[in-house]
Amino acid sequence: MKLRRLMMLLLLSVLGLSTWSSYVLAKPASITLQLDGQVLQSDVAPLTKSGFTMVPLRVISQGLGAQVEWLPSSQTAVIVKSGDELRLKMGTKIAQVNGNAVKLDASVFTLKGRTMVPLRFIGEQLGLAVDWNASKQLVSLTTPRSPGNDGGTTEPTIDPTPVPKPSNQLRGAWISTVYNLDWPSTSSYGKESKQKQEYVDLLDKLQNVGINTVFVQVRPAADALYPSKLVPWSQYLTGTPGKDPGYDPLAFMIQETHRRGMEFHAWFNPFRASVSSDTSKLPASSTAAQHPDWIVKQGGKPYINPGIPEARQQIIDAIMEVVQNYDIDGVHLDDYFYPSGESSSDKFDDSVTFATFNPLQIKDKGDWRRYNINEFVKQLGQSIHTAKPSVSYGYAPFGVWRNQSKDLTGSDTKAGVTTYDSMYADVRTWINQGWIDYVAPQIYWSMTFNVARYDKLVDWWAKEVRGTPVKLYIGQAPYKIGTPEIGWQSAQEIINQLKLNATYPEVKGSIFYSAKDILKNPLGLLPLLQNYFSTN
Hints:
The protein is α/β, with parallel strands linked by helices. The protein has helices at 5-14, 57-64, 119-125, 192-209, 235-238, 249-259, 287-290, 309-325, 351-356, 365-387, 427-433, 454-465, 492-501, 515-519, 525-535; strands spanning 32-35, 38-40, 47-49, 52-56, 67-71, 76-81, 84-89, 94-97, 100-103, 109-111, 114-118, 129-133, 138-142, 170-175, 213-219, 263-268, 295-298, 301-304, 330-333, 392-395, 438-439, 471-476, 507-512. The protein has 15 helices and 23 strands.
């Protein structure tokens, strides 16, 4: 979902947008680097790669005071500071942070004899706040003002006034745990008290902005942030898949969230089996190890095959563990159904399953895949509503259902990926059948992005839920503020989108991706949001 950042970049690439060329070289003096207000000098000019600032390794050593070493035999940059060790290997997008794999924004490469490394990633891992001012072409690094900020970013102090008004609108934030994107930090692995304090701090800051609901990822990849009889402990708690963290993170998070009068929605990624291509390293209790016949690889990554009824039921059973044993306010699922990256040379190979598990003898494989997802959505909803009717149940699909070029009832968009044709999720049927309580499409584009305009998509989704009991929440994209994509050069874009939402009675709130991207205060978003929430 967002781990959807990479998918968004791939989508834009498919659409042929020149904005996202693989290398965009800046003029030598165009990007300025500052640390605590002091300009950092660089003999090779910083540049942007796929929207991320890359700097010579020397800047990290001389400017940030870290120890650096280049290992030519393995083509690896090693960076050490304050007990933290980062290893970045040339050409790969996975870094090692204190021995744990963490996803990179951009891989290391060489330019004019200098090793170029991603500044934001390294700065945040070393405990610095990193902000990008697009208008000034300025990257500002800030040293934390107080100890204990282990999330890697120093958040600006938010003026306690204006106070956000209580609202019957949902004001949500996604809290991603996959790759430790939002919580917990990699430096908290195996440290119960540190993880608890990080979550408490995160909640306090979000509530101060005006957020009243959190959507916390409790199943990142066929694993759990709670003691489960069906799936292993998540690696994002200890750094080791299957290792018990020594406490129940889910119980703690629910208690702290409710103590503040906020809602807690448990967010599940249903069919992703692992973020790693090597399933042999997963615990013996993992789904991939227990049921290798359920696993299909696409793009090198393993997925649980949605076409196998027993596999779908196991996922439902794992979700129902949480529904039955915890005081959650909602069950939330993202858009990981069938993988959207299929190509003629890289298929999701489910031909045997298509022939074996096809009780209705559906001839078209696409229709059969949609049938499988429909069955999953319907049966999970029935289970939840039977056990606890008060628990809200909904999905956050990709923002485009279908383009008009494919279906005249689709949206006026030209998206290269759609939820119906690429992920085989027929959200319209879910709405019309009343299988879900709400839908939260990820409309991660601006109101001037003609390929998929925000205003047109909000209008389309509002019409889809109109006359039904299904609520509409909009997935917002603060993570895009300050990026080169069309329309995101000002934080006012988010406020304008919220104002547009308010003109549609069907829109009952917003969910922001993600928590850390709100609190980074991109281009001054925080005071704008706080002011908007105080008056609306």
